[in-house]
Amino acid sequence: MTTPNKTPPGADPKQLERTGTVREIGSQAVWSLSSCKPGFGVDQLRDDNLETYWQSDGSQPHLVNIQFRRKTTVKTLCIYADYKSDESYTPSKISVRVGNNFHNLQEIRVSVDAAIQSLDSEP
């Protein structure tokens, strides 16, 4: 999602989109996963249904790759994680990396908060 101003942590991304504060740009990207169980892939990760989700099926690290076809400025990244529903699968660490290709990615943000609702990518 892009936004002209800093988005408050814990803000509802759908409400922010309805008010025009942010714009969802994930559909402009190619999404891939390091692994997934059948029926728990990119479609479920992106379907806006809180009852469906991505479930990895491989060794760590578990990766979600989001690649845009052209250079794209992303100011805010919103991630929904429901620790109360499934603490064993809720990530304990999320790393955000950016770059021009897979080989020059640089880490810009790391969060170790298990109750993550959003990460603001501005350092």
Number of helices: 2
Structural category is mainly beta
Main sheet? 2 strands, antiparallel
Strand order of the largest sheet: 1-2
Oligomeric state, counting identical vs distinct chains? single chain
Q: Topology as H/E string? A: HEHEEEEE
- Choose one word for the global shape: globular
Average predicted confidence as pLDDT: 80
The fraction of residues assigned to DSSP E strands is: 15-25%
Radius of gyration: 14 Å
How many β-strand runs? 6
N-to-C span? 16 Å
Domain DOC: 1-123
Family: Belongs to the APC10 family.
Organism: Dromaius novaehollandiae
Keywords: Cell cycle, Cell division, Mitosis, Ubl conjugation pathway
